[in-house]
Each structure stands twice: as structure tokens, then as C-alpha cells.
Amino acid sequence: MKVLCISASNIIHKEKGISFKICKIALNELRKKYDIIEETIIELKKYNFEPCTGCGKCFFSNRCIIEDDFNLIYGKIIENELIIIVSPHYAPIPAKLVALLEKMEQITFLKWGKDNTYKSEVYGKCALIISHGGGELWALDSYKKMVNDTIANALDTIQIKVIPLNEEWKTGISIPIKKAVFCEESIFPNQEYDWDYIIQKITEYIEQIGTITL
Q1: 128 neighbors 85 (Cβ within 8 angstroms)
Q2: pTM for this entry
Q3: Which structural domain range is residue 103 located in?
Q4: Cα dihedral angle (10, 14, 19, 24), rounded to 10 degrees?
């Protein structure tokens, strides 16, 4: 199995932030259960690409005409069987992830609009969605609605199947913080995480892959 994990965080004041750490945990837990031929982590903050302008030229080439990093990332998504998207809660999701999703949606939707039997280049691939934010357990329902469901709706348009955790959480999982501590030395809160709980939750989610044919 070839796996691509997308770390959607925009944060640059941390070299390896929470999204990246969650990607590493997810890949490590996957290795324990499945034969991974190749694994890749893409940190969107390190790539540059513009939002979709709706020019429609991707209809003819299945690629964006703008010469930026989008086509590189889209190619990686096409090459891999399983896609993991790790996204923090912003407003509601990071800007680069929005741009990535909207361009992929445009490529697929224009073709599908002409032919409702059209199958995209990512048709049949599966995805895990893992969201996280600065809130504790009480915030998870809102993260699900704003982050997981938003990403899942876009993936559905491009014909990627999101693997559910259960009937309640059909669009992935969300990770809380343990607590946030504000101090005078920094404008940013010091967020503490229960990493044992996070590993347990990710492992539980990964087990659902066994119910899907990749």
C-alpha cells in the first residue's frame, strides 16, 4: 500500500507542529498493521500554489494551467492508494488546504458535468481525515462539523471515499488538547496533549481500514 499524509497546517513558527506529529503517528500505526510499500508526508506550508480562478482550462488537461506546486501535489495524490489529511481548525480549515481542494473539485466537476459517468483520476481511493484544534473534548463536535465534514464534502466531489470511524463519526476523527496554558513570555498558548490517548484514537481509526477494500 502506498500512503500519502498531508499536513495542512500553515504555522511557520514551529518547524514540526502538531499536524506533522499526528502524520508521523498515523504512519507508524499503519506500519504495524499493513504492508506499506511507500509513505510520503507533504507539509502544505512548504508548497506554493494559487487558488482556483475558474478559468476552465483544466477541463482539457486534467491539470491546472498555473505553473505552481498544485500539479505536483495532485500527482502525488493520484499515485497513492490511501490519503491521510491532518488539518487543524482555522476558519474553518487552512487556506492552502482550501486551495488544494477547490482545484481538485474544479478538475473533476467540469468533466462530471459533461458526463455523469465520468470517473476521476482519484476515483476509488480512500482517505482518513484527522482534525485537531485548541479546544478540549467539548470542542470536538464543532471541529467535526467545521473541519472533517468540510473536507469530506470536497473529497466526495472528487470521488475519494472517506473512511468512517463509526456511525456518529462518519468523516474521520478529531483530536483535543489536554489543556492550554497562557504565559506572559509568549503570545501563543502552551498546549498540552495526551499523546497516549491520541495514539489510541488513531489506532482505533486505522483499524477501520480493514473494512474497506483498497
Answers
A1: yes
A2: 0.94
A3: 2-211
A4: 140
